[in-house]
Fold:
Amino acid sequence: MRYFGPPIALPSGMIRLLWGLLLPLALGAQTASLAGTVVDPSGASIPGAHVMLQRLDGPGEWPAETGLDGAFRFAGLASGRYEVRASREQFQPATARLRVGPRPAPPLRLVLEIATLTQELTVADPAARVSAEAAGNVDTVRLDAATLADLPVLGNDILGAVSRFLDASALGAGGVTLVVDGMETAKLGVTASAIQEVRINQNPYSAEFFSPGRGRVEIITKQEAPAFHGEFNFRFRDHHLDARNAFASYRPPEQRRIFEGHFTGPLGKSKKTSFLVSAQREEEDLHSLIYARTVAGLLQEQFPNPQRDTELYGRVIHRASGKSTFTAGYEYEWGSESGADVGGFSLPESASDRADHYHAVLFRHQWLPAPKLINMLHLRWRLSEDRTVARRPGERKIVVVDAFTSGGAQSDRRESDSRGELTEVLSLTRGPHVIKAGAAIREVGRRSYADWSNREGTFSFSSLEDYLAGRPFSFTRQEGDPRVAFFRQESGGFLQDDIRVRASLSLGVGLRYDRQTYPADHNNFAPRLGFAWAPGRRQRTVLRGGAGVFYDRVGSGPPREVAQFDGRRLQRLVLSDPGYPEPFSGGAAASVRPPSVVRFAPDLRSSYLLQYSLGVERQVREKTAVTLNYTAVRGKKMFRSRDLNAPTPPQYARPDAALGVLRQIESSARLATHALDVGLRGDLSRFFNGGIRCTLGRAYNDTGGIDSLPADSLDLTGEWARADFDRRHRLELYGVAKAGRFFRLGTSLSLNSGAPYGLTTGRDDNRDGAARDRPAGVRRNSLEGPGSATLDLRCSRDFPLREKGPEVSVSLDAFNVFNRVNYSGYIGNLSSPFFGRPVAARAARRVQLSLRFEF
Structure:
């Protein structure tokens, strides 16, 4: 039998070893199991409910959590008397007692009544309790709706606020994986107040998910309620409350207004049909900061960059019976931005305007054909359109590397994306097994592009001196037909078995298969394995580990460029040492106009990560746990670009004179990371609940990404170096302190050591058309900038309008409270007037006022 997967023996060997050792225990153990569902008064399932099982006639306590179907399960139980308690925000807890014996217990059904707004529930956070479940890792970042409401979040950017908990080495070329209500997608589908819970690193080695735990964000949205509930939020920022950026000469007149909320309840008089509607309007009068060096000297200027965004979401849920539920929804977004592409080195004449539209329809079906069998079907069809237009077309662009960019933007682009998404998951509970099998089509559809940019051409200069002398090192221009359309398909399937071998030991074994149109590599089998073992009767310490293979995606950009820049349809001309101001006047460069080509390598394969980890979790107090984890990642066949037609010394002429740049996208790079982190989660004191994570790590690779070209395409020895995202030391702290009824203080602290950056000459000595050359013997990312420190705070207080009625909350956020200057954008270009200096800094202190009304 031939194996078509990657040449990795570790996961399969571990699986065989553990099965051989533990299968006899699984077959011989005389244990029982308990399963059930948590529902609301209308019978609809409640996902994300916290379930606690406690033995009444002996020691033992086990946490669990309901899935999207509201189901929970406990396996490996000894016979005896137990108490089950289920709770969830906005619901009153429910408790049931029962006896578990050798015979399978009937499924348990817990109904949670809707709680009043002023009722306070004391619920133990399962994320702060160790568990012998393979999917119960304590180092999960879990933020429920109440915590999200108390933590400092700039605007309503929930994803931006939690992105710092992700691991850049786990993102890949496709970026972060977003999973909403069990379906991988590109959009949230609701606005911020309709989010029930956010999770990162939940069950990191599950075959159900495409990415590792720290490469994905899981969102659970609020469910439609049988009674009317709603929330309205208003957030406000003004420049009078903010500090001045370190690189700005004054504070620009900025203001930001956000109106957002959601409303849910029964549809008419029906007891089986309900709805949820959420909406958001953002009005941002912002400014871009220009910091450049021109022939007239240093230029510090603020350029208006107003942005508008409108989002509308609505869905209806119908409970046809106790076993079948249907959901239908519609999503709409519209946005605009004026004065884009200006800032940093780009001067005002580079401005362009953007507009985008997004429509989507959603269908979901939940079906329980048997008491222990659940089927979930998700469908979504989406259509998006984006348009970018330059304000000053018809002007050639001038680029003085790391000094200034002037001339017309020449931006004229249109993009349309029509795609379908499908997810089908079947869950079966049988004895100590919870088996999940599913298939997903992340994308199947048509993308079309039209790019009329850079029609007039761009001159590039190495320095201000070369610009004054009229000596550009390259001239680039696009000619031909920019319109292209192609179909894409990304799909996958998985089989996952979570096995409770004993009360103190569980395994998670899975296999995943992924396939995409580009590259045409169909041997992408990804085995996954996770385990958790809690020695001792009290199970206060858990040894946890796992290993898995995770494939990557190329994204939509490379297929578009391969289709466009084929040497015939759309031609990208690259001339070295052109004439100025007329590039085709005189000289050898004027006699030919060779087109540049982008292509996939003939042996291109899907890149993949092998991640493995081992750690220990310890329950130090009832609601506090400490973790210690070591994680390593090995990246194989990582994506990179390379110029196969690079000029060869000593004449530095291109081997094929009929071509310019022959950019080949390859899977020939690698990645290696190591990380040791210590975490503390739960009740860190009497008044503070949250988490802290300290990480010591290292990340090396030899690629800057799928679109990145090396300094010398003929010699890659200097590319293996610190990764762009490498940070040796990191500390993240988040949590909420409660001062009784007076106020709540949400805290977010982020400390990072310096990031690497490269040393370059700023010149095009190898005549490849780019100023990426490094001094002899210097490797990539050989320099390091300073570290960063940011403290954000939110102070909030609730004001009930009447007993057991609606309430108003007032919040004050301060971002970068101490107004620390966190420099970024260090220049390693020896030809730049800013060499060795930063040219940008992260945002100075900003203040945000928020008002929330909930009923």
Remarks:
- The chain has a mean pLDDT of 87.
- Residues 220-249+266-599+609-644+655-854 form a domain with the Maltoporin; Chain A fold (CATH 2.40.170.20).
- The chain has two domains: 31-123, 220-249+266-599+609-644+655-854.
